[in-house]
Amino acid sequence: MSKVFPGKRGHADVTAVDSVSLTVEPGEILGVIGYSGAGKSTLVRLINGLDTATSGELLVDGTDVVPLKERDLRGIRRHIGMIFQQFNLFNSRTAAGNIAYPLELAGVDKEERRRRVAELLDFVGLADRGDNYPDQLSGGQKQRVGIARALATDPSLLLADEATSALDPDTTQGVLDLLREVNRKLGITIVVITHEMEVVRSIADKVAVMEAGRVVEYGTVYEVFSDPKTDVAARFVATSLRNTPDNVEAEDLLAHEGRLFTIDLTEESGFFAAAAEARDAGASIAIVHGGVTTLQKHSFGRMTVRLSGDEEVVQTFYDRLRHTTTIEEITR
């Protein structure tokens, strides 16, 4: 599927989404990540039918939405909930009124609307806030109202477009926990659009990394985090894991005697056996940086160590590990 916008005033056409092919399984949470201009938001607009693909097909519950007319798209959109970065609440309506709005459009009777709104307010943890207006709510509470509104018509698919980027870290985690609950308790498929790898790490089953309109990397969260194949994915992973010393930290570490090595830790890396051998041979080993993460029941990480002592022993340590894992020496 591709989306090309015609160029204006003699400028070249802009390909916002370039031959993207993705499958999101029912009940799955997919994280789509990329820097500004990568094509993420255009992809969302294609999924919910607000934009039309230039070529290819886009199947929502088996229906290709690309050739559909607006009146037919309205039926598709009833099964797609949308959560926005800036909440997009009606300031003139209470929290309950905002949640009721899509039910009013769907022609749901008043009594059923009242029941459904109360149920959703309770689900998102705002049972006592239904009469509050948006300007009486915190950012996290506003987003919870947005989530409740998106769930009002029982969608099978939920699209979250930068839904946490306007929130502080603690509030972000609360919203992500709620989205996980939506997925697990209600079985709703979720596509999360973000530029924050920590969001992907916290919630997603799979991740698609976009750059210049293309999906340049795709896999389970564990696969992409533990072994990124592209530079853009590696940069995103580094912002979340912080298990490699930055330039300033490396300069400080290099001020001390010994050789510095950063090592990928996996079940097959053999690091601890190699470290024990080097220590038994008289080398001094100090762990100076690193971290281990568990994702999707797998553990992985990176560790930076300083070895000092007999040069032959240190070299043997390096030679052994470079055959079983990724090891890089930090030098000036």
List keywords for this structure.
332 residues; alpha/beta; Rossmann fold; Alpha-Beta Plaits; 2 domains; six-stranded mixed sheet; four-stranded antiparallel sheet; 12 helices; 14 strands; 38% helix; elongated
Task: Write structural notes for this entry.
Helix 5 runs parallel beside helix 6 and helix 11 runs antiparallel to helix 12. The chain has 12 helices and 14 strands. It folds into 2 domains: 238 residues, Rossmann fold (3-Layer(aba) Sandwich); 84 residues, Alpha-Beta Plaits (2-Layer Sandwich), CATH 3.30.70.260. The strands form 4 sheets. It has a 6-stranded mixed β-sheet, sandwiched between helices. Strands 12-13-11-14 form a 4-stranded antiparallel β-sheet. Helix content is 38%, strand content 23%. It is elongated, with a radius of gyration of 25 Å. It is α/β, with parallel strands linked by helices and 332 residues long.
